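Question (not urgent): is this output format expected?
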Amino acid sequence: MASIRDGSMRHHRPSKCGPTWSELVLVDSGIREETVSTLEEVSFQTEDAKTLKLRRRLPASRSDLGPVLLVHGAGVRSHIFEPPRPGNIDVALAKAGFDVWNLDWRASIDQPPNEWTLDNAAVYDYPAAVKTILERTGRSTLKALVHCQGSTSFMISLVAGLLPEVTTVVSNAVSLHPVVPALARLKALYAVPSLGRFLPYLNPQWGISAPSGWPRAFDFYVRATRHECTNPVCKWSSFTFGSGAPTLWKHENLTSDVHEWLKGEFAHVPMTFFRQMSKSIAAGHLVSTGQFNHVLPASVVEQAPRTDARIVLLAGQFNACFLPASQARSYDFLDRYAPGRHGYYELAGYGHLDVFIGKDAPNAVFPLIIDELTRG
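Got this back:
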């Protein structure tokens, strides 16, 4: 059973959570079938002159639920929400009546490698993305579905008051309080400072082709110590982002096609990010780099959140990247300032990214996400 904290504590199996919606049709496999809706790309520039991309999927329903922004995590890209199977979250949102905008922020592997931090994205990427979406749609507000480091960086921007147009956020895995398993904590506190002296990036693609020197040495270590599967990028992703076996999903939640597809969906992650996250793990909450003291607080918990948005936090029961305590602590922090307004759900049987790419996620998790975004 999974616990849900949404004002009060109750028990719940996520496979039965949330209502279904009439626009969605179940096919024999139990996966929701695809519908056709328009997909367009919109480029925009940030104040620090980065060109980023939004991919838009128009509503495929008579309902008009307004724009929703999707934000991926670190070392991936917007396509991570679109594994090779029917019923993906962008299509499900469009079928429910949302105008879906899928962002490739500066952490995207479609961007040239760059030494980004959470603060860079908070100050530059999200205000510009929100402005672009609202200008294109003629709307005054939007909602957001954010994952992992897309969530942490977005939440920094939100609680700093930089995104007043955002009314609802559904956050998966981690938001304001990164809590990791013991071994991953030791790695973050002691290994990351050493790694940063030798390498500017970690790259799961080294599992397929590692350059000579330190990358090849680390690839030898990963191959020698990880035996949970034969997918080298899967192994490297686990090494890069934590200490689990695997770290980012439960293998039994993935189809073989999706597991194979993941080989092309992970790449460079800069040590600038890992250094900031290591300091945040040590502090127990997100801390800034100090680069933007004029707009960002030194700590996300030093002041009341400067947002009126309703925030719903999701945590996979078996998340080996960020423990469910991460989202539970953030819920407690948010609830202190707005009792009963926000929500927390622990999803039974799920890990980290399989909340979106798992074979049963369209039926088990997506109705909950859509219900919470619809509630506003």
